[in-house]
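Record format v2
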Amino acid sequence: MAKVYPVLTLVAMALFAVAPAVVARTPVEATMGLVQKIFYYHVPAAMVMFIAASVCGVASAVYLFRARPGADRLAVAAAELTVVFGLIVLVTGPLWARKSWGVWWQWDARLTSTLLMWMIFVACLMVRRFGGAGAEKLSAAMALFGMANVPFVYISVNIWRTLHPTTAVIPKLPGGMRGPFWFCALSFMLLFGLLLALRVRLEERRAEVEELYLVADHD
Amino acid sequence: MSRRLMRMAGAWIVAAGLLAAGSSLVLAQAGAAEAQAGPTAPQDPAGEFVPVKSLPQQEQLPAAPLLVAAYAFVWMALLVYVWTIWRRLMKVEREVRELSSRVSEGAPRR
Amino acid sequence: MMAFFRVAALVMRKDLTVEVRSREILYTTIFFAVSCVLVFAFALVKEGRPLEDAAAGIMWISVAFSGTLALGRTFERERHAETLRALMLAPASRPALYVGKLLGIVLLLLVVEAVLVPLVGLLFHAPIANSPFRLMALLVLGTIGFSAVGTLFAAMLVRARSRDVMLPILLYPITIPVIIAGVRGTAALLEPVPAVELADMWMALLAFFDIVFVTLALWTFEPLMTE
């Protein structure tokens, strides 16, 4: 397991190093122009945000119903990554929107529901920090509600008419855009896996510290 | 094993930082070229396409700074996050070392 | 199955009996809701008259804020008398206990809304008598959705630190969609000519939220309340 980390890290670094060059060579979109190239980071980040939210939700359910501490560690790592990648989505989106729609923000279904889902996972982290004893279970319950939001956020843009592009854009990507897009998506997902493993490792070390404290105090 | 991880994380951060700087420059150059090349018509919710030159000055937003800002933000956010993990990991490793030495010191005295 | 409803009804009756004796939470919640409406009315004043289109939003904001207070107070009372632990020790199914508490909160909030809605209609010249049944249905569905999540988290927070500030932090991101649907549906009904299809769409969405939230809450109540 440990041997695979250096290889994966090198691969992820290589992918990220190449990504901007790949994106620079993509065709420019007709209506939105140069700023549309934010798409190559905005959408993969959103995909990772959904995946992280789902991982957090599943791990939280396992923690609530099976009381496995490993599941709680995975849940907190996934919650942090949901917040990080969600922040990326919520900042790159408005930067794109400023040029493309003329405004930084719109209270439409997609943006509002994404912001609320992001805030749910921020609240997960806050309750762990400030909630005192038993906060992990509360955070797990929040994460379940957060995961329930994921399909809602995804289809919100198909049900309601919004300025935000619909999900139909991805399957219909023109050839010159498809390759770079999936390349970026792959590198983001690889990065997500690595960061998740790293963060879970941190939690495992913390658990070891707790054990050691118990042993040390016992003497 | 964890020391290797820390060194890997450090190398990742330095390499990624250099790449971020480099790619931002590349993109900014590409952006400057595009901005000079052709008109980009901003989306009008009413459904009309308006040639760029007839827009009032403040609507001719240059796209390149927004693009660079977006990519720079992504890099920065990921770097900062990796750095916070690394910082917390170092703290925990230090605690583990202290506690291990404390436990092993305590044992022989008993 | 009948045992489930009997337990829920018993818990609800207990809560109502306690409340009817002192009426403390009822009166304070109504007063708070009215103050909320007045604060918003004065804050959103234009040329000496409150903004008329703001009626729907102000109504639901006041319900959300006073609901949060009522939840906090109700469970604070339980914590004070340690009755929550007694309830948990009773040989009753946890989901039934949850449903009983939920019904009590919903009833309390509906009484508050019965006072609030005419007041809002009065202050903001809002035609609340346009489609009274649809408006009531919206309020009931929205209150159930809000209270379903609120009861779950308030019950769990009884034993937590900084519980007063934690409840809004946990509650609002999850229940804001309910508030949005409530406000948009109410706004549709308070138009001079009520937009009935639109209101029905928002009502269907509220029903959907209610089903999802109550299901999730029933599912997680037991593991959350067990140590």
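Chains C and B do not touch (no CB pair under 8 Å).
The CA atoms of residues 181 and 202 of chain C lie 5 Å apart.
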